[in-house]
Amino acid sequence: MNISFSPPFIDQNVIDEVVDTLESRWITSGPKVKALEAEMMELTGSKASVCVNSWTSGAIMMLKWFGIKAGDEVIIPAYSYCATALCVLHCGAKPVMVDISDDLTIDPAEIRKAINHQTKAIITVDIAGLPCDYQAINTLLKQPEIQEQFIPASEKQRALGRILLLADAAHSIGARYGGKSAALASDITIYSFHAVKNITTAEGGCICLNLPEQFNHEAEYGFLKVFALNGQNKDAYAKSRGANWKYDILYQGLKINMPDICAAIGLAQIRQYKDLLLPSRKHIALKYCHHFNAYSWFTAPALKDNSRESSYHIFPLRIKGISEEQRDQIIDQLVGLGIVVNVHFIPMPMLSYFKETGYRMEDYPNSYKQYACEISLPIYPQLSIEEVDYIIESVISTVQLHLGISPLKTTA
Ligand SMILES: *Cc1c(COP(=O)(O)O)cnc(C)c1O
């Protein structure tokens, strides 16, 4: 068999929607982006949503929106994709990395230790699709001794009056927290529509706003749409309608708008998300757990508990007691059997750039521990039952052989 890791979901609906865009002769930002933004508000329950050309660019824009600059600190987990740190660096501020809990999400106790007068924001990462402990984090941010440390230095910082909570929801579209959409648990939630994510637009992202009531969401939406288009007050679509050529530049914006040709892909997918795409991922995750639970080397990922439910974006298989080298060997063997797997994530302090700028892996022991025994298995709607069964058999036999246990099932 030949099983890829995370191919995009492209069915006839996607193709039809893209062809419709091409035939309309309007391919950049226009009605499809608007329609995708409306779908995102519906799915996430957010008060406003702005589509952009990546998670990364959206995060840069929102940190700039909040007035983050040199001298500021933003707390992030060490265990994430590099973009979580790079967006902070692009604003001239310092990413302060902290360690994670055993469920792979940022540890609220570590956040508390890292907060000081320079802290302006926290970026939480819903790793693998599992929402962070938002109850603990929101409670922390509202504590008087934490609020007293906050020194507002921009109009938005004064309006919010506390540290901003921005969720990196690149993995967690459709995840639930406290019986509601997980997007409602933070001030700003940013999704990625990169080609490997649960919903894709090839490249893209979406910013969802759930700011407190002192913010006017319609006005913020209007501002962000202009800011995402070089600060230009009329987009090409508006200019194309009649004698509407005159425009103005209002801010030093970014050029990060999403084109309609990309939005069309995501639009066709999001319409099938709740009823087809998300349930089929969940089904595979539960099947993996059901089979692996019989083995003592298996550490089950947190998928659902009393307060939260994952979006089942990644299936992080963790094998108890193995070293990083053993993990790498198991991966080689699985690849040899035709199964492409991955590791989420190489903690940022292990990557050259972050190492050279002073981050040390020893400071994040749990991030290393989790990374060293983790293998992300294929999980996507197009996987057939035979392929899932083959992955399960291959993982069990490979791991058992590796650990020197009989490849046969250990329970009756
Ligand atoms: C994919 C990913 C990103 C970056 O998304 P882009 O849309 O490629 O910019 C950020 N954070 C995490 C955790 C990711 O997995």
TrEMBL record:
Modification sites for N6-(pyridoxal phosphate)lysine: 197
Stored Gene3D superfamilies: Aspartate Aminotransferase, domain 1, Type I PLP-dependent aspartate aminotransferase-like (Major domain)
A Gene Ontology biological process annotation? Answer: polysaccharide biosynthetic process
**What Gene Ontology molecular function terms does this protein carry?**
pyridoxal phosphate binding; transaminase activity
Keywords assigned by UniProt, alphabetized: Pyridoxal phosphate
Q: Where are the active-site residues found?
A: 197 (proton acceptor)
* TM stretches of this protein: none
Name of one Pfam family that matches: DegT_DnrJ_EryC1
Q: Which residues form the signal peptide?
A: none
Give the family from UniProt: Belongs to the DegT/DnrJ/EryC1 family.
- Indicate what this protein is called per its UniProt record: dTDP-4-amino-4,6-dideoxygalactose transaminase
